[in-house]
Amino acid sequence: MPKIMIVDDEADVQAVLKGHLVHMGYSVAGTADTGAGAVEMAREMKPDLILMDIVLPGGMDGISAAQKIKAESDIPIVFITGYGNPEYIEKAKEIEPFGYVMKPFDWKEIRAVIEIALHKKAMELKLVKANEQLARANRDLKQEIKERKQIKEVLQKARDELEQQVEERTAELSETNEQLREEIRDRKKGEEILKEREKDLEGKKIRLEELNAALKILLEKRDADKEELEEKVTVNVKEMVLPYVAKLKSTGLDALQETFTDIIESNLDAIVSPFLKKLSSKYLNFTPTELRVADLVKQGLSTKEIGHLLNSSPETISRHRKSMRKKLQLKDKKSNLRTHLLSLQ
């Protein structure tokens, strides 16, 4: 149950707000009637959201109190005020509040502003987590590139050494042939020496061929690992990050926030575009929507919860689930869809 803190210098307004919030299903973390009291209570109670009046007694107004709270934490703040003065609105915009509600209250409006603010905050936290995962994946990819570069250097060194050995052997054979021409009397002995050297060269050739085969296998393994990593990064970004960025854009962002989300979306596309590949064969026949539904099913969400997140009806989500069971050959079986999806990871 979300905890909401009320900051207003009028006791009757506090009481009315508290009653309606409880009726709406929220928990009231506490009430404060001054800016300084609000800052201290926010430190102690750590609420999920603060309803903050702008005009407060005691030398610190609601906007100043909100600035101090924002500097210490990331608690969403919604301003409630009876003043529609443009000067107040401009000052409030500087701290990027999650809402601005005028008195007298429209309780439907207050509920909508609270729900949107809480949802927006949850989406921001998910986006931060997704960015952290993407950063880890990028670090792993850089390490992979570094290792491949080292292998390439080893191969080049081996090639240079082989060429040097061939040159040395060629020189030795030329010298041997010259000696054979000069020492006709020792021809038989020279032929035996030549055969021995050819045998030695054949043995080294075999060993070099074995080395090349081993290096080829190693390179193929590195290529397979790289392809798997690229596939995971692509799937995570396209199916687990970008859909939530799209949902965040539909929550009524202001112009600056919308610009930031557009930049995030563009940068994510730029990151994954160089190595987009086919999805893993176990999900090859799934549609993009079915992939998102499958991800939420693995997280343990119900059909109703999934429908809420994807803006779809429960009936639509049920059809997607039936389609996935059919593609996974689970139709008419008692196997649990979530258990089966988790076993494919």
Task: Describe the structure concisely for a colleague.
The protein has 345 residues and is of the alpha/beta class. 70% of the residues lie in helices and 7% in strands.
Task: Describe it.
It is a single chain. The chain is of the alpha/beta class and 345 residues long. It has 3 domains: 3-105, 3-Layer(aba) Sandwich (Rossmann fold); 136-275; 281-343, Winged helix-like DNA-binding domain superfamily/Winged helix DNA-binding domain (Arc Repressor Mutant, subunit A, Orthogonal Bundle), CATH 1.10.10.10. The chain has helices at 11-24, 35-45, 62-72, 86-93, 107-182, 187-249, 255-272, 288-298, 303-309, 314-327, 337-343; strands spanning 3-7, 27-32, 49-53, 77-81, 99-102. The protein has a 5-stranded parallel β-sheet with strand order 2-1-3-4-5, with helices on both faces. Strand 3 (49-53), helix 3 and strand 4 form a beta-alpha-beta unit.
Key terms for this structure?
345 residues, alpha/beta, Rossmann fold, Arc Repressor Mutant, subunit A
Strand pairing plus helix content: what structural class? alpha/beta
Oligomer: single chain
**Global shape:** elongated
Tell me the helix content: 55-70%
Ranges where pLDDT stays below 50 over 5 or more residues in a row are 275-281
Count of extended strands:
5
Give the number of domains.
3
Estimate the strand proportion. Answer: 5-15%
Query: What is the straight-line distance between the termini?
Result: 33 Å
| Helical segment count | 11
Q: What is the string of SSEs from the N terminus onward?
A: EHEHEHEHEHHHHHHH
Kindly report the average pLDDT value: 84
Give Rg in angstroms. 35 Å
Strand line-up across the major sheet: 2-1-3-4-5
Largest sheet: 5 strands, parallel
